[in-house]
# Entry
Amino acid sequence: MSELQDFSVFDRRESSVRGYCRRFRAVFATATGSAMRDVDGREYIDFLAGCASLNYGHNDPQMSTALIEYIQINGVTQGLDLHTGAKRAFLEAFERLILQPRGMDHRVQFTGPTGANAIEAAMKLARKATSRTNIIAFTNGYHGVTLGALAATGNQYNRMGVSLPGVTRAPFDRYFGSDFDSAAALDRMLGDPSSGIDPPAAVLLETVQGEGGLNAASPEWVRSVAAIAQRHGALLIIDDVQAGCGRTGTFFSFEEMGVTPDLIVMSKSISGYGLPMAIVLVRPAHDVWRPAEHNGTFRGNNHAFVTARIALEKFWSDQAFADQIAIKSDIVTARLKALARRIPGSRLKGRGMMQGLALPSGDLAAEICRRCFERGLIIETSGAHDEVLKILAPLTTPITVLERGLEILQSAAADALEDALVPALT
Ligand SMILES: Cc1ncc(COP(=O)(O)O)c(C=O)c1O
# Structure
């Protein structure tokens, strides 16, 4: 490790809240496609992709060019919701390439640029539209860490024991195993005025719980929950912050499930370039905001609009990109199945390019990740006990690179097991 890898100011001055950098201890410098490089020029295959905020890879050349051109003509950068040419071009592309082909009449609300802020907006809007307060959220759900969103987040570590009102927790699909119909239970409780659950403004869910351990809801379950929400006068909010933008194979994660959410929350990869941006898609009947009611200084990141438009035009003008995602997803599935056969007690999780392996312990998952990093692969865990190895490679990752990353994962896992770190498994 060279002198360039100097961590002292981070260790001295950066808050103890820092997280990812503790697990991936390097000073990073550049990144292209599916690779990151540190200040020493060491290359890492990126299976984290900014936690799915870089679905189209690092520094896509067309997006870079468009952004540089926009900066060179002194394009507007401020983030209020003024009309700009960049925003108009994004909205027109989003309407033409995403909403119209799917028969969606949703309007686009630009919120503060994080997933959490967009979730806050969706929760507030559902409450206003229905004149109700309660929101149903699910076990292992993750929706961000600002107080409103955190109330809907399950993770105890993030919840920090603070008072988080206004949300009732319900069991996610197969939370109690496949014999327990959690949708029917929810229906029953919402139909019983003495169940103790207040009539909800909304039911909020991820179709694949990213941070919660890659729990993929079945289409039947999502359809049942959508029908239950409607029956009980609640809006359906789909949190597509992590599972959207092609991560599960289609632009929206729910596309092939036969549901039309009232509100859809997107962030992470919506800008296409890792730039902060978030939106809530709102069916017109629920767009009951008064002007500037959910306000904020940064609700119009024009640089993000430039790259977001290129992302839509480049990747979502036809079926080719989705076809590529399907091929790569199959490769990931095959490799994970092979790996699962070698690790007793492990099982496949997730779908599309959002798959992983639940391991018998978080310690084993952490050890495998550590060894991957040593060998040049960045990969993270998720789940209640951080026990799920989670592959979030950019969707643009070339197949050869994907295979190489999966080989590193396989060898790191084999070595971790062989070294009898977990004697019970060997
Ligand atoms: C499904 C989901 N919703 C919301 C969020 C919160 O987004 P942010 O971290 O940008 O606030 C995340 C973040 O990981 C997420 O995965």
Q: What stands out?
A: Residues 55 and 394 are 4 Å apart (CA to CA). The mean pLDDT is 97. The radius of gyration is 22 Å.
